Amino acid sequence: MMSIGRPSVVLALVAACAGCTTSEAQKASQSPFHRIEVEVGVRTNAILAYDVDRDGHFDLVVSGEGRVVVLRGRGDGQFDVAASVAAGEDPVDLAAADLDGDGFEDLAVANHATDYVTLLFGVAGGNFERRSHSQFEVGVSPHPHAVRLRDIDNDGHADLLVDDRTAESIRIFKGVGDGTFSNSRMIEVGGDPYRGMTLAHLNEDEFLDLVTPNPDHISVLMGHGAGEFAQDTTLRPGFAPFSVAVADLNGDGLADLVAGSGERVGILAVWHGQRDGSWRAAGQYEIATGPTKITAADLTGDGRDEVLVASYMGGEVAVLTGDESPVLYRFEVDGYPYGFATGDFDRNGRMDFAVANDRTDQVTVFLSRN
User: Fold this and answer.
1) Burial profile 198-237: b = 16 or more Cβ within 10 angstroms, e = fewer
2) Strands 10-14 and 327-332, how do they pair?
3) Which of 131, 233, 272, 283 is an S-S bond match for 220, by CB 3.0 to 4.6 Å?
4) CB count in 10 Å sphere of residue 31
């Protein structure tokens, strides 16, 4: 693996590139994205993308400084501040689902250094409202860092998952369907789930599976119905993983795993899923220090997912292409990049992505070039 310093604009690392020609390397180093800065008015961290106001364009929902802000998409990759609502103390993570069955997406907001998650309910016009039960006490320790809203028991209602770091578990609240949740239960993951978690279908059954990064390993738990999970695989990447994502990187129809290292290291590790349910180590890549969030999307439209990594401490966004010879693009950004959202923001048929930049009042949008 080549050693790369922090780039001023963009650099590309081609894995297994010993046989690449000069022209191929030059082509790989050309940025496939056009970059736009969007003013928000508050420092941002978590971010989501979906059509909040139902006008046919992707909008962005961002959190920061005690608020959730809606950025209305124009359909050309530009966004305007459209709404802002109080979201509790120190919001650090977001998840969206229709919790009350009214057809509008609602939000769960993880409130750092508190004992609660804030529930915000979508209303007509692309805004959100607070209700009497919006401050929802979750009883995790020391406080919530990550939230997910997924229907893990296949009953048609989104359930709420919150990390419980001290208990080395994830606390699950069963969705009732009216915007409230029933009593919780714990899923032991054998580590430190505050670092992030992902839910995906890793096999051919109908149940969501769970992957969590822990201080020295990655836990893979398989869903078995009724919201139950059982430990299946432990992967040890040789560093302290902070974030994980599931993606199909090689287009074989099987789930692959990606993990980013912790605060003082900058490594991205990849495992390819095998048909027997095992995982094959497929490489490690050098990125900036402190990768915090990872997501995946098919940015090129070739049927292979790309991996996006935000390195908070290193001030960098990395994009690993899903290809036979993967290319790692590295972009320097202002502030402290934290969260990702993906969607076709300019309606050109290609997936784009947006990055929330903590300690700035901007969101950086990367539009895929044709």
Assistant:
1) bbbebeeeebbbbbbbbeebbbbbbbeeebebeebbebeb
2) antiparallel
3) 233
4) 15
Strand partners, 188: 169
Helix (H, G, I), strand (E, B) or coil at 28: helix
**Torsion angle (degrees, nearest 10) of CA 51, 84, 110, 289:** 80
* Sign of CA pseudo-dihedral 234, 237, 243, 245: negative
- CA-CA distance, 357 to 39, in Å (whole number)? 11
DSSP line for 248-305 = -SSSSSS-EEEEE--TT--EEEEEEE-TTS-EEEEEEEE--S-EEEEEEE-SSSSS--
- Model confidence at 11: pLDDT above 70: no
Angstrom distance (rounded) from CA 246 to CA 142 = 27
Report if pTM > 0.85: yes
SS (H, E, C) 59-107: EEEEEECCEEEEEEECCCCCEEEEEEEECCCCEEEEEEECCCCCCCCEE
C-alpha angle 293-294-296 in degrees, rounded to nearest 5: 150
**Token pair in block for residue 175:** 């969705």
pLDDT in tens, 99-144: 999 999 999 999 999 999 999 999 999 999 999 999 999 999 999 9
Give how far the C-alpha of residue 36 lies from the chain's centroid of Cα atoms, to the nearest Å.
20
CA terminus-to-terminus distance, the chain: 30
Q: Give the Cβ contact number of residue 324 at 10 Å.
A: 10
∠ CA 14-18-22, rounded to 5°: 75
Taking alpha carbons only, the member of 105, 4, 65, 10 closest to residue 331 is: 10
Phi, psi of 22 (to 5 degrees): -60, -40
Q: Strands across the sheet with 198-200, in order? A: 198-200, 209-213, 218-223, 229-235
